């Protein structure tokens, strides 16, 4: 069976460049009813493969065209653009055919480009090259597929068509050019291990076939036994570089183009055919050279080998000396990653850079032996290298290299171990620092909370708890110092990220010092609260004693007979003595209270101090009142004294009912700013406007008026025409059920109106109560007010 070259070429072009359309049509039919996303994915994958193959062909064909245009000092950079004007295409055909084509038309207009391309295509038709569905406008327009097809057609015509191999057989079958090229490759690589050529695609991926072709014709260029099928990239790079450097073959392909699942067949054929032509020409030249140069070979070969030996020996010795200097360098990177990279570079030197040099050293010995053997065979004076370039000198230098290499490896591994320890120490530092920072932050929040309680037992318990906290925190100092010690160790070892370590160590120390400050301040506040609670407890005891004493002094029982009167007089004398003792106790309470009243700054603290002093003053006043009662008892003419019940009611809890109108209240005036909200207009009616307003409040003669400021109060201009409210029979209480704002108390008057008042802070809440209570002589310190005092003092101190 025989196929003509044109028919074969036509079938290949048609099949190749219509394959993408055929594949797309097939997939369209198979996927019509399938998921659209899968269909799009498959199409995109096919297109990507086609684009990749087209890119490889373009690169290969561009290099092939330039390899021939270089004969006429021309070159193209873009296959599609530079061939579109037809000029380079005409020059390419002239180089390939050796014939003169019509002179290209001058001009850059489209009509000129079309005319030039037509000249090239017409020449191809005259050469009986069949061009199907291809016109000059396709090339001028830069049609990728047809431009690549045109170049492939030219390659087939001028590079592959003349290849033919006849096989022995019954029918003496004559194969096509492509099959003949494949057969030539198979014949040349027969017997080479790991080489099995059955196509122009996958058979060439591992690079062994290229190396086998080169080794077959130039065994001096390749040590084929050292090639490994698994190292495809190295094999391909080795073959391509040797072909370019030693055979003068243009490097049409790169290893990345071949080392894929399905290399492009046309690109491989284009490159392989350059091997065919070169080796065919080399074979002819070799036969001719043997006839002419056999006489000169023996004369010049020895001289070249000597020059080669001198050059290789000098290069090798220079490389060894430079490498020893590098290996003796002990300046390592100050990081684990850097040392690992240096160790990797060292391993690369041992596995990649050094082996070729070792091979080169062995080749030098072989080369010198060959030179000396030839010279002895030709009865020439045996060549001896000069001092320093003897094989013994090279071996001694190589031994120094081995020693430096060993010492370098030991130093690198020692430094690697040190850096690994530093990294472990740094991770340990970060872990401990994170735990210390978390613990310190949590304890800072803990000691920042002043939940001491509102009575003496609670404060005592808080004191004991604080002592336990202090013990824990003091014991924790050792752990903080452990973090500092690790940081100092890293600094002493010159850890590469010591700035970050130092910053985090400083942060831990700062948190620790701040915690100690907070702990000390909390201890001071706790001791102040403890003293305050003791003063409060003493006050409550004194005031209870005063109530009992007033009840006794208000008694109208003066005795019904002489013995009874004398008994009462004796008891009264004891009462007077007890009152004297209690006076000293009141004085002591007053002195202790002054300690809490003389310290502190700020408006809120001053209000607390004023209220605290007022309580003490009331106790003193109460004592004087009792002493006056005693004097009246002694004179047997006691003056009217308010009932104890009324007195205690006047000093009641925070939730107190204000006096009614028939009670005798002194005229008083208190004023200041309050944040006010009108909540109820009646007993069952919400206020129409329930917004908060900052108003200037004035309490005068059991009435509270609201003004914009002090000036408006002096002029008597009420805030929004508000009528003053009567405090007679009013109820004052802490607004515990109001959650929208803090530090709020409420005032309910008898007509059903209810107002909310807010202090700026919790420490201001008691002075606001004190304004109302002072007017109504509410001076009793009950449990609820005591709680407010405790909270105020906690925040003040």
Automatic annotation (TrEMBL):
GO terms for biological process: actin filament capping. SUPFAM superfamilies: Calponin-homology domain, CH-domain (SSF47576), PH domain-like (SSF50729), Spectrin repeat (SSF46966). SMART domains: CH, PH, SPEC. The keyword Plastid does not apply. Residues 634-661 are annotated as: Disordered. Residues 55-159, 175-280 form the Calponin-homology (CH) domain. CDD domains: CH_SPTB_like_rpt2 (cd21248), CH_SPTBN2_rpt1 (cd21317), PH_beta_spectrin (cd10571), SPEC (cd00176). It comes from the Eukaryota. GO terms for molecular function: actin binding; phospholipid binding. One of its GO terms (cellular component) is membrane. Keywords: Actin capping, Actin-binding, Coiled coil, Repeat. InterPro entries: Actinin_actin-bd_CS, CH_dom, CH_dom_sf, PH-like_dom_sf, PH_9, PH_dom-spectrin-type, PH_domain, Spectrin/alpha-actinin. Residues 667-777 form the PH domain. Residues 459-493 form a coiled coil. Transmembrane segments: none annotated. PANTHER family: SPECTRIN/FILAMIN RELATED CYTOSKELETAL PROTEIN (PTHR11915). Belongs to the spectrin family. This is Spectrin beta, non-erythrocytic 1. It comes from Hucho hucho (huchen).
